Amino acid sequence: MIKAVDNEVVREALINLDRSRKKERLLREQANSLLEGLEIITSATGTEDMLGQLLKMVTEQLQCEDAFILSPQQKSMECEKLDCIGATDPLFREREWVGGKIFKRALAGHPVMLFSVLKVEEWQQQSEEVQQKCGSVLLISFPGVDRPIILCCVSRQRAYFNKTHLSLMQRMMPIASHALHTLYFNEQLRQEIDERNRLEQYASFQAGIAEMSASVLHNIGNTVTGGQGHLLKIEQQRKNLLGLVKVFGAVHEWTEAGPLSDAQVEKVDKVLQGAAKILTEVVGEEGSMLDGLGALNRANQHVAEIIQMQRGVSRPVLTASEFSIEQMITDTLSMIEEGIERRGIVVSVDIHSLLKALYLPRNPMIQMLLNLVKNSIESIDERKQTDEQLSGAIQIQVSPDGEAVRLVVKDNGVGIEPERFKEVFKFGESSKERGSGFGLHSVANFVEGVEGRVAVESDGINCGAKVVVRLPQRMADRS
Amino acid sequence: MKIATASSTEENTKSAIAECYSSLHEQLGRAPSLLMAYYSDTHDSAEMSRLLRASAGEEVQVHGASSCLGAMTETGFHSKEGVGVSLWAIDDPEGDYGTGAAVIGDDPEGAAVEALEMALERSNRIGEVPTLVWINGAPGREEALIAGIESVIGADVPIAGGSSGDNTVTGNWSQIANGEQWSDAVVVSVLFPSTQISYAFHSGYDPTDTTGIVTRCEGRTLMEIDGRPAAEVYNEWTEGAITEMLPEGGNVLALTTLFPLGRVVGEVGGLPYYKLSHPDGVTADGGLTLFSNLEEGETLTLMQGTIDSLVSRAGRVTEAAVEAGDFKSEQLIGGLAIYCAGCMLTVQPKMDEVSGYIREALNDQPFVGVFTFGEQGCFIANDNAHGNLMISIVAFSNQPI
Fold it and tell me: How confident is the model over A339-356, as pLDDT tens digits?
C-alpha cells in the first residue's frame, strides 16, 4: 500500500523556510559578534591595545586557538618581509615572516583559507613548532594606517575554518580597519597637542629665562655698584698712601743731607707717628683697605653665585616622547638630503624589525644623528681630496641591545687615529680640516644627558670610522 | 568571467569535438580556464581526451566522463540514437582551477586523495580550501571517494558530481582528464572561482509510510529486510513491480525508478529528508543490488515518484540552488547539473522539458546536465553525500566573493 505522508511541495517550502531560518540565525550571530567586536575595539586606548583586543575577540568568535597580525615592512605590495605586530602567542611574534604567493593574495584583498600549511611556502620556512600550531589558517587583510595588515587566524585542527568563519571575518574587518584609523589619528592628534604644549612650555621657559636674566643683571649691577664705592675708598686710601710716600721721600732727603737738627728729628718723629696711624687705619688688622677688599671679594662671590644659579636654571631640559625610529631617521636624512645627493654619497639604513619606537627626546636625537651624519660627510669629503675615485658610503644601523638601542653610523671617510678616540668628543676637537669640533662634542653631551654611551672606532687614517651610540630605548621621565 | 556550452550528436568523435570546441572558443573569445566534456559511451574516450587536449592546449584543465546516452544543455537534450557529446567551459582569469585523476583500484579513498592533491597542484593553490570540488568517478565506491576528499580538506567544502554512466549499464563507462583516459578512475576538479556559487542536492521523490529495517546486507547488495528476502519484501511494498524477476533474478533498473528506497539523512521543519538507493537488479538468492552502500540496522522507506515530478523537479532544485546563493538571479552566469540516468531513462521523451526548467531557473544561462549512475552533492545541512535518483545543481554568479 503506497501512501504519501508528505509531498515535495511541502518539503520544498520547509527547506526554504529552514534555509531562511539558518540565514537569519547566522546573520543574528554575526550581528552579535560584530556588536561585541565593535564594543571591544572602540574601548581600546590606543592602536596597540586595539590590535590586542582584536586578536582576543577573533579567537573567541572563531573559537580558534591563536591569531596574529602581519604587516609588510615596505609599503609596496611586494611584501618580501612582514613584521608580526601582534600575536596571542609570542612564538609568532619572534619569527621572521617572508612573503610568498599566499600573503600576496591576502594583501591583494583576497581572503585565503588553508586547510593545511605543510605545503605552503610561507609556512615551510617556519619552525616545526610554528607548523604544529598552525593546523589550518584563515588569512584576511584590511587597510592599516599606512600599509595593509593581514590577520591570521590559527587552529591546531586541520581543515578547521569554513565559509561561516570567513563571512564573519569579512564583516568584521571594515570595522577593525575604521577603528584602527580613528585610533591612529587620535594618537597623532594627541602627539601634536603634546608637541605644541611642549613648545608652549619651552616658550614660557624662555620668557622666564629672559625675566630671570634681567633680574640677574639687576642683581649683578647692584653688586657691582656697591663694589664701586669700595673701590673709590680704596683709591682714596691709595692716594693717602701716595702722600705718605712723598713725606718719606722728603725725610730721606734730610737724612742724606747730613745729621738731623732737633727740629727735624721732632718732625720725623711726628711723621712716623702719623704714618703709623695712617697705615694702621688703612692696612691694619681692622684697616679700611681690608674692609674694602673683603667687600669686593664678597661682591665677586655673589656675582659668581648669581651666574651659577643662572646656569643651573637655564640648562636645557631633555623631555622624552615616543616616536618612530624609522620616521626620525627619515626626517633627519631629509634635512641633509641635498648635500648627500650632491656628493653622490650612498646612505643605507638598516633598522631591526623588532625595533619600532623609542621614548627619548626626539629633537635632540635628530640633532645628534644630524651631527654624526654631517661628521661622516665631512670625513668623506676630506678623504676625497686624496682619493677622487672614492664612492662615499654611510651606513646607519639601529638594533636592540637588551633594553637599550644601539645606533651605529659608519662611513668610509678619512678615519681617525686610534690615539685620538677619546679626544674627538671634547669641545673644539676635530680631526677634520673644516670641522669645528663642536658636533661630536654636542653628540657626547646629548648621549650623556640621556645616560647613554658613545664611542668611536676606526682602523686609522683613510680607513673610515664608526661611531657607536648606545641609548636607553625608554628614557626615565624627569620631574 | 563567462560560461559557455556546445553540443553535438555527430557519431564521429573528431568532427563532434571540432564542432563543439570551435563553438566554445567563438563564444569565449579565447581558451577557457576549465573545460568539461560529457559524452555517450559511443565515443572513443581515448580519442576524446586527446582531441580535447590538443584543441584546448596544455594550460587548460580538462575534466570529463561518459554520460548515459549523451548530455543536456540549455539548448536541450543532446542525444541522437544514443550518441551525444556536450562541452562546458568557464573562462575566469581571476579564478583558479585544477583537475587531477587517479585509478580507484582497491583503494578508493587513496585514489580520491591522490586526484585531489593533483588537482590542487594544477590549480596552483596547494593547501587552500577550494570553493567547490567536482567529481566524476567510476560507479561503485562513491562513499569512499567522498571520505577520501573530506579527509584532506574537511567536511565543510561542498562536493558535487556524479558517477560516470554508459548507455547499457554494462560497465562501458570512462573518465578523462588532461589528455588521459580510464575506465576505473576518479576525476577531481577543484574550483576557486572569482565569484560566488551556490548549490543544492535533492531527490524528486516523496516518502511513503512503508518502512523496514535492513537486517542483512553485503556492500551494495541488500539481502534481507525485516528478516525476509529483500526482493520479496520490495515486491510486496511496490504491489508487484518486480514480480517477473523474482524467480530467476535480473535487471530491474527500469522497473524500480519510480520506487527507490530512502534513508533519512536529516530533518527539515520536523519532516525528514532522504538519500535514495536505486535497486537495479535481483540476485538469484532473492537479494536486491543497489547503486549505493547500505548498513545493517538502517531504516528503509519506500519512496515514490511520478513522471511529472521527475520532469519538473530538476527546475525546482535549480531554483533552490539559486535561492541559497547570496546573489540575485540576474547575476547568474551558468550552472552545472547532475541528473540521475535512471530518471532520465524514465522520462526520456520529456528531457527537453527537464532542460527547459533548469534553463528557466538559471535565467537562460548556459549549463550542462550529466546523466549519471550515482549522484554526489551537498545536502542542506552542508553534509556531502552520495545517493541515487538525485539531482545535484551548482549555480555560478558574477557576484564577487
Answer: 898 899 999 999 988 888
Spatial neighbors of B206 by CB under 8 A, at least 6 apart, are A4, A5, A6, A7, A8, A11, B303, B304, B305, B309
**Residue B200 per-residue DSSP state:** E
Question: Is-above-0.90 flag for pTM?
Answer: no
Q: Most confidently modeled of A54-58, A260-264, B142-146? A: B142-146
Rounded distance, CA A306 to CA A300, Å? 10
DSSP class of B388? S
Which positions in chain B touch A14 (Cβ < 8 Å)? 268-271
pLDDT tens column, B140-173: 899 999 999 999 999 999 999 999 999 988 899 9
- B324–A2 C-beta distance less than 8 A: no
Domains of chain A (ranges, CATH numbers): 7-188 (3.30.450.40), 319-472 (3.30.565.10)
Show residues of chain A in contact with B313, CB under 8 Å: 8
The span from the CA of B220 to the CA of B289, in Å, is: 6
Burial of A164 by CB count in 10 Å (0-12 exposed, 13-18 middle, 19+ buried)? middle
| pLDDT for the residue numbered A3 | 41
Residues 129-158 of B with CB under 8 A from A: 129, 152-157
Cα gap B128→B120, rounded to integer Å: 8
The cell for B389 is: 535518483
Q: Are A419 and A401 in contact (CB under 8 A)?
A: no
Shortest Cα distance, chain B CAs vs residue A29, angstroms = 17
- Judge contact between B87 and B21, C-beta under 8 A: yes
